[in-house]
Amino acid sequence: xxxxxxxxxxxxxxxxxxxxxxxxxxxxxxxxxxxxxxxxxxxxxxxxxxxxxxxxxxxxxxxxxxxxxxxxxxxxxxxxxxxxxxxxxxxxxxxxxxxxxxxxxxxxxxxxxxxxxxxxxxxxxxxxxxxxxxxxxxxxxxxxxxxxxxxxxxxxxxxxxxxxxxxxxxxxxxxxxxxxxxxxxxxxxxxxxxxxxxxxxxxxxxxxxxxxxxxxxxxxxxxxxxxxxxxxxxxxxxxxxxxxxxxxxxxxxxxxxxxxxxxxxxxxxxxxxxxxxxxxxxxxxxxxxxxxxxxxxxxxxxxxxxxxxxxxxxxxxxxxxxxxxxxxxxxxxxxxxxxxxxxxxxxxxxxxxxxxxxxxxxxxxxxxxxxxxxxxxxxxxxx
Amino acid sequence: xxxxxxxxxxxxxxxxxxxxxxxxxxxxxxxxxxxxxxxxxxxxxxxxxxxxxxxxxxxxxxxxxxxxxxxxxxxxxxxxxxxxxxxxxxxxxxxxxxxxxxxxxxxxxxxxxxxxxxxxxxxxxxxxxxxxxxxxxxxxxxxxxxxxxxxxxxxxxxxxxxxxxxxxxxxxxxxxxxxxxxxxxxxxxxxxxxxxxxxxxxxxxxxxxxxxxxxxxxxxxxxxxxxxxxxxxxxxxxxxxxxxxxxxxxxxxxxxxxxxxxxxxxxxxxxxxxxxxxxxxxxxxxxxxxxxxxxxxxxxxxxxxxxxxxxxxxxxxxxxxxxxxxxxxxxxxxxxxxxxxxxxxxxxxxxxxxxxxxxxxxxxxxxxxxxxxxxxxxxxxxx
Lengths: 383, 383
Description:
Chains A, B: Residues 9-174 form the Alcohol dehydrogenase iron-type/glycerol dehydrogenase GldA domain. The structure is a homodimer. Chain A is an alpha/beta fold. The first copy, chain A, is 45% helix and 13% strand. Chain A is built from 15 helices and eight strands. β1 of chain A pairs antiparallel with β1 of chain B, so a sheet runs across the interface.
């Protein structure tokens, strides 16, 4: 096992009607900016439930944060924070709203050009405190320090990490997911699955807690994922929600090598073609597994055996089957796993490597030995 | 899944030489009381390494905290805290030292008779902040809110819980375990194993994260436990240490029913006969499993299948085998699993239920349907 620091102080309030704990979770006397997305929370009752908890707080609202939150949109929220002297941000939505709120939190206190946080990786030294009410389990953003922001005008989707933007609390009420469309539910399951794979499918370092927990989450997602479409099934939704949080809260990634190459290539596909984040992951991961078959061999075998319960006496066959089973799982979740199924043309093979180079991604993956050329081969296999 | 709050803000610094992060983990300018046990840290170099980190702090020392920390000993430390206006407690040792330090932290700021925290369950409203350097993985105390204290003169071993005594940080350097005697290493593995069982082997509530994580830790302990005796094997010690922390940090116990009957009966055996805590658990748990076979049936089958990989087509045989395998695992760890092997006489059958009644334990277990009479039957089976 590698040395690590693990520290996740986010307080999670999980369960039926946990939104009703909001009033006690929020700092007293804080001036709150409530951030949300396209307005679905106004239709499904979440907005009203949240507002009932905010009667003793001064509240300013900011709606309209996009899936793949847009830099220019978020900068408008930053203005609101400054104008109204906001001292707490409350994100109500899915990973995009939480990610966007994290950027607002950092940008509002940033001394300089906020774009540099993303484009140049300039360190965030403070942020407006934030909390969240999660309505779409997927990204793990609700308790972690990561944020991904899109800037369409430049065709860039970039991320930053900062301990200062970790939510102080996360309210997880699985009932808030009842009104989600199937596409978003499916995206959430696939996203969580690939988050685990990015931290698990690398090379072994004798990290038994991390491996077993990762394998546990993967098995749960495989078992429960296809049931996410069942209407108002609390147990299924609750379990998928908690599995998604555990998939990216730092725990299974502490003390182990991490990959994230699938995400890096996926981000370029989203930036280029506007494909849903999870959709890009379902396209890239299987071909990544094939391309990295040799470097990931030991963990591929462990994955075949422990997650898919395959007989590994014929090692090559077991690896083949594990990759095919992964593809079938994505398809079972409604994903199209080839680019042509999304009408993406062959030029993608040149465009993705070029964009990786533009973004300075000259070497990536858990061994740092993947290059834009490898991305080209992976994309070619995914055509 | 049941509703829950999960919040574990302890910062963990894990790995080789992590003690060298102590200076940055400790609050600046704090006046530190360093608490430790029988002095082994002075022989194995841990004391010196810790003191090198404390050169800019004012430090008062308090050694001599016993395995099963004694109330009267701890109250002497409370006096030191008051006398020297200590504002941070640093526990260096195993679970007993950390538990003892937690009690000192609470008692030093307690308005009233500190014994009432344990004997009457009076709420702790504040505590001196504390951190720890863990040298014996076992109890999970390094990141949780629990503390168990012994008062031999009254024959009582009692516990309390308070968010105020959760360590701010936990330094986990697996190398500090190299000098531990085999008996303590074995105790640690068994203790962690039974902690998981108390939170896992109850009745199913559809908690897939908690179940899979619990099953993962159990499998790891079964695989690695017998290797704990290997000299200076960093990988084995590191993994056992992190598994033991995860076994009782609140994560696998969130949103599920919990048992703790084995611990309650075990505590009485320690109070009566001075048996090591883990030794009592290895004696009680197998008979508890047999006694509760019907109430725990579904989880016993899941345990047989997922942890021991037993064929469950014959359900009764699978449960039988799972219990026997649990016993064999304890024996493999060097545990004697019957009371007569420890020269405990038959009067124990009457004494344990009587002590449970004295301590107000009239109903316990995950369904609250165990009574001192059940404890009598369990103890009889363990003779």
